[in-house]
């Protein structure tokens, strides 16, 4: 059985075994006044997840938290500048920080750098743009290998070529 709100979004879903009236599956979703999903739960045979999400006044996601059978499973937290550009993004599994990203932008709100921490260490990305504002180069370092991705475009902005260059830890290109 499905239930819908006035916008046509599924708000509840239930699967029941007819012979026993046992609920096999159940889900419920709630939305805020802006239409963002703020609560979602799913249960299958008595085990389930509940995810809650918060948003700022611009409608950008600030936090999300997922519980599995009542225990903290994962969380995210995001911050933004006044223009809505993402500045930080952190994600956790249980109570352990699993990753953290930080971002910088130029005056045209183009991404300049991304610093990403994951379970494999820190990675730094630098972005270069042409006069038309297209990203033409991405450089990555801080991992086991460095790489550069460059592109060329025609006068209409269509991508003509991508070139990837990787350097391994011994300085060799491949």
Reading the helices and strands in chain order gives EEEEEEEEEEEEEE
Strand order of the largest sheet: 1-2-3-4-5-6-7-8-9-10-11-12-13-14
Mean pLDDT: 85
Silhouette = elongated
Strand content: over 45%
Number of strands: 14
Q: Major sheet, described briefly?
A: 14 strands, antiparallel
Broad structural category:
mainly beta
Number of helices: 0
- List the uncertain runs: 168-174
Note the main attributes of this structure:
single chain; 174 residues; mainly beta; 14-stranded antiparallel β-sheet; 14 strands; 66% strand; elongated; disordered C terminus
Structure description:
This protein is mostly beta strands. It is 0% helix and 66% strand. It has no helices and 14 strands. The protein has a 14-stranded antiparallel sheet, with no helix packed on it. The termini are far apart. The C terminus is likely disordered.
Task: Give a short overview.
By secondary structure, this protein is mainly beta. Helices cover about 0% and strands about 65% of the residues.
Task: Furnish the topology, listing elements before pairings.
Elements: E1 2-4, E2 10-17, E3 22-31, E4 37-44, E5 47-55, E6 61-68, E7 71-80, E8 86-93, E9 96-105, E10 111-118, E11 121-129, E12 135-141, E13 146-153, E14 159-167
Antiparallel strand pairs: 1-2, 2-3, 3-4, 4-5, 5-6, 6-7, 7-8, 8-9, 9-10, 10-11, 11-12, 12-13, 13-14
